[in-house]
Specification:
- 2 copies of one chain form a homodimer.
- With 455 residues, chain A is of the alpha+beta class.
- In chain A, the strands form 3 sheets. Chain A has an 8-stranded mixed sheet with strand order 1-5-6-11-10-9-7-8.
- In chain A, helix 15 links the parallel strand 12 and strand 13.
- In chain A, helix 8 runs antiparallel to helix 13.
- Chain A is built from 18 helices and 16 strands.
- Chain A starts with 14 loop residues before the first helix and ends with a helix.
- Chains A and B meet through helix 1, strand 1, strand 2, strand 3 and helix 5 of A and helix 1, strand 1, strand 2, strand 3 and helix 5 of B.
Chain lengths: 455, 455
Amino acid sequence: MSKPSLARGTRDFGPEIMVKRNFIFDQIKIVYQKFGFLPIETPAIENLSVLMGKYGEEGDQLLFKILNSGDFAKDLKENDLEIGSKEILKKVAEKGLKYDLTVPFARFVVMNRHLLTMPFKRYQIQPVWRADKPQKGRYREFYQCDADVVGTESLICEAEIVAMLYEVFENLHIKNFVIKINNRKILTGITESIDAAGKESDLCVAIDKLDKIGKEKVEIELLEKGFTQKNIENLQTLFNLPHDQKQLFAALKNWLAGSEEGLKGVYELESVWNLVENLGISISKIAFDPSLARGLSYYTGAIFEVKALDVSIGSIAGGGRYDNLTGTFGMPGVSGVGISLGVDRIFDVMQELNLFPEQLSVIGTKILITNFGEKSLPISLEVLSFLRNNGIKAEIYPENSKMKKQFEYADKKNIPFVLVIGEEEIKIQKFNLKNMLSGEQTLLSKEQLIAQLHV
Amino acid sequence: MSKPSLARGTRDFGPEIMVKRNFIFDQIKIVYQKFGFLPIETPAIENLSVLMGKYGEEGDQLLFKILNSGDFAKDLKENDLEIGSKEILKKVAEKGLKYDLTVPFARFVVMNRHLLTMPFKRYQIQPVWRADKPQKGRYREFYQCDADVVGTESLICEAEIVAMLYEVFENLHIKNFVIKINNRKILTGITESIDAAGKESDLCVAIDKLDKIGKEKVEIELLEKGFTQKNIENLQTLFNLPHDQKQLFAALKNWLAGSEEGLKGVYELESVWNLVENLGISISKIAFDPSLARGLSYYTGAIFEVKALDVSIGSIAGGGRYDNLTGTFGMPGVSGVGISLGVDRIFDVMQELNLFPEQLSVIGTKILITNFGEKSLPISLEVLSFLRNNGIKAEIYPENSKMKKQFEYADKKNIPFVLVIGEEEIKIQKFNLKNMLSGEQTLLSKEQLIAQLHV
């Protein structure tokens, strides 16, 4: 006998949670489809050659690796033990679990390049796995909901991503959110303009803390990271950027005038703002955030992040443009841009703000038929099939238990109606329908029953 | 640069396949829900302590094991290498990928015993993993669609499973199938009646081949397996069982009169037949098959298997009753019965018999708006949002490419309508709608467009 337990950082989802999660998935799918994205799925298991080296050294560490089947240790030598896990890994594991949906998607695009119509728009809703230290809100197995367009550099795609985010969160009744946007080229431009080229990463980490620790402490951190006093003087413009959109873009152009890359970034940013307005969307929930970097891993243009306000939950969506992702699989020149929604975080936001629709509480069966044993069973089963054939979710209590127990079952499962079919009812061919909420009871024929339940 | 490849025995699903698979999933879900089953999900990753020993020795071999994170080899000693993989496994892997949905469900039930309302009916649609040798129609990662009831021994559940199978396959237009039913107790009864108690497994393997190799060869195999000539003489009744249902049950009762367990099995079988008829279902597609065993692993009562006729594809569903599954996790006395549908096989059957509905060929966008560049873009994007806000799946071609290319895109993606918005159209505020199938073109206002597309 083994004591049952969940693997660390994983979760079961019972019916109540599933219904709420499916509500979120469905709303996302509806929007993705409305914008012309088509579904694909890739396997959970990928060859490690596909995954390794795509997420930085830390990412490689966080990949779950799968032991080769059969006698996996047959090639291990004493010498391997001395070198350690890294050497042994190469000999015992060729496969791993996918870490995100973007890299497998890039693999899919490259392997299906001759079949796909470009630009290719796909969405993908699947679990991913990361061997992170589990903590509140961070799991080792969690779902991502991605939409990406590859095969075009058009900034319309960036604007459409913003439009999709608006529509998804509107449909989920998450009203208070901000879509932070940055552009990798602007980050490059800033480092060039302050004479600190190549230090985007350190710069981001520091200025990301501006809200929390204030300007002075940010400057101290920059000095510690090797930025000069002169660098920091040049950076002052960043702390004083205007909030008004037009002034903002003008100020950026002025500041980054010496960096071709930086100006290109500002132009891209401005274009996205204009295209979003063309799509009829208020830009009030979009904010330029020069500290946004999201790891900088493979982004080359726009960088997105969505934060829900009113709650202290991290970002609920993130994404950006990448120019070189299929290049790592031998297919250069395919630019892509995408967004990934974090269902677990969105769930937490909706739970905390009580945003799930009321009707999700009745999640299953609409009517339970009581079981009075063998004599009434044939009629009960006949009525049961009649109800189901009329599209009503119905079940019969499987055992001839006490009425109290059968009603308790309906109550606990939140089943709104119970139909009592006993000897008396069979005689008169009318059945006793009890409304579990109001307590009201009505004698109804089969046909009347359908009419009543379809209301 | 790494050459992209799929891990052996795994598959990508592109949009056309996804839409067809989702059609199957949806039909199954609708029926499961109509019968009062609620959805749950369990993680892909389970502790090996939960999985090992539940599927026999072969099953243990076929489990995918996950390497522990971090410095997994730090406890390995030279001595371990000498003992080999089995010893090393214990030190380097604590987790694995789930092998089916039933054992994780049993774990779920035990861990949530105080929260669940019994009898508990759940369905679960998720991938499972087996390190089998990949071959045509057999994958290492594939979906199962399970429905189980636990917490009752009522045979109504068996009858409802039959009813669900009828409805699922009817909805999928798979008309020609047979539901084979056996009962583990009858198998036991037969071995007792022929004086070969305990040899159910060998008996099944042999008589399973009756159709293929004929009675004589089956008897030779039984002799080889250690059955005596006397055993085989006693077994003759099996080869001459009547087809008529009433006669069949009478013959079985007569034959197995000496085995209490066997008679109980016949009684159960007969009850299921009657309950199925009570549910208004023709029993013409149900067949008693005494050779059906499905590995015998954890089944204790009914055993089900569904075969599609007209095609040479193996079983498309299987299941049965198990009395001891939660017992292995320390919770005895919970009887359950369930069915598992094999979506990959069902897909193959539907593909081969051309059963997917026509309308699944238009899987995404309903209308593509052309892109004539900057001048017309604001109006094009406005119309795009207008269409989407009216619930129409719409997209704009993201680049200002040649018209031919844009139309080709619509054609390849099977988009039924293209809307041309050029300078002329903007002047008169009417847009040119082209029906890609008929070639017909119509000038329409925005409002007329909606009316046209909603038809």
